[in-house]
């Protein structure tokens, strides 16, 4: 099958792109990496009348640190984050651990973080990290620019608070302090499948106690999800040494957080090879594993400087 016919424009500025999107009553789609868009058009599951290709807008192709935030332009490719050194501190580690789960190298060389936010697939790794970290989505439309908190941005599968005439120009993520450890664990049937379940976590420890916890759940509801009930289990818990062996004791805070995420936070949707109960079990296990990875990351990060967290 081939795409239905469409008009194609290639603006050179954000203003031109916004004008193209807002200057017509035709259905329009934005093309950046095109990894999801082109396939859907090829299968004619979507039939835009206009495609706006933003790849020749230089101001969208850049990433920089602004104060305590990382600003990722709309044309920054997934592959940029494969090196943990691309972004300072624990945030760089988290992004590098997540990005290797996105498809395969050719896809990562063209797809973009902003494109993932625009597509809003429930199994998107970037979207769950954005929700967990309180990211901000910058959009520009005919009425000017505005910023949308990630917690309010996702409305459901492929549905967001972005208006059809608006263009995503950047995603802003908060940088993480050196007393924060991060983890990301994903479960899927094959390497090239979407995640059945994945978990992102960031643990902050102050004076030997978990002072902040952020947990993002992938494909555990109809949109990316922050596991707030699970986070509350962790706040105030002692950052004790991890138990030996592959299995966490039932009473360990990480195990209790996993159960809270599965039973209180998640509303999983059944799909082939993974019914809702299977997903709940996977969420409970993966939250525990991801928190363990975050704790290990934090210990390795702090040990050279001060002999471990205090």
From TrEMBL:
Matching InterPro entries: CO_DH_flav_C (IPR005107), CO_DH_flav_C_dom_sf (IPR036683), Diverse_Substr_Oxidored (IPR051312), FAD-bd_PCMH (IPR016166), FAD-bd_PCMH-like_sf (IPR036318), FAD-bd_PCMH_sub1 (IPR016167), FAD-bd_PCMH_sub2 (IPR016169), Mopterin_DH_FAD-bd (IPR002346)
Record's keyword terms, sorted: FAD, Flavoprotein, Oxidoreductase
Residues covered by the FAD-binding PCMH-type domain: 1-178
SUPFAM superfamilies (UniProt xref): CO dehydrogenase flavoprotein C-terminal domain-like, FAD-binding/transporter-associated domain-like
Protein name in UniProt: Carbon-monoxide dehydrogenase medium subunit
Organism: Streptomyces canarius
């Amino acid at each position: 099958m081939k795409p239905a016919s469409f008009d194609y424009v290639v603006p050179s500025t954000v203003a031109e792109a916004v004008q193209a999107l807002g200057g017509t009553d035709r259905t329009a789609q934005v093309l950046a990496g095109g990894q999801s868009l082109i396939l859907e058009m090829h299968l004619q599951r979507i039939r835009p009348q206009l495609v706006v290709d933003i790849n020749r807008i230089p101001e969208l192709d850049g990433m920089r640190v602004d104060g305590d935030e990382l600003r990722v332009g709309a044309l920054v490719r997934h592959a940029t984050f494969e090196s943990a050194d691309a972004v300072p501190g624990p945030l760089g580690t988290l992004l590098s651990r997540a990005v290797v789960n996105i498809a395969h190298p050719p896809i990562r060389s063209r797809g973009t973080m902003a494109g993932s936010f625009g597509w809003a697939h429930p199994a998107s790794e970037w979207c769950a990290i954005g929700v967990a970290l309180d990211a901000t989505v910058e959009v520009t439309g005919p009425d000017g620019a505005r910023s949308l908190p990630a917690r309010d941005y996702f409305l459901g599968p492929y549905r967001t608070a972005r208006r059809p005439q608006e263009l995503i120009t950047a995603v802003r993520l908060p940088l993480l302090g050196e007393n924060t450890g991060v983890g990301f664990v994903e479960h899927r049937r094959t390497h090239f499948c979407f995640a059945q379940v994945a978990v992102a976590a960031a643990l902050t420890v102050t004076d030997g106690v978990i002072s902040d916890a952020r947990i993002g759940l992938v494909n555990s509801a109809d949109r990316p999800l922050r596991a707030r009930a699970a986070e509350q289990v962790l706040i105030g818990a002692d950052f004790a040494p991890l138990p030996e062996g592959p299995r966490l004791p039932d009473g360990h805070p990480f195990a209790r957080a996993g159960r809270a995420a599965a039973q209180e936070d998640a509303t999983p949707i059944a799909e082939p090879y993974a019914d809702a109960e299977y997903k709940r079990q996977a969420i409970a296990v993966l939250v525990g594993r991801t928190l363990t990875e975050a704790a290990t990351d934090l210990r390795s990060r702090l040990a050279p400087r001060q002999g471990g967290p205090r």
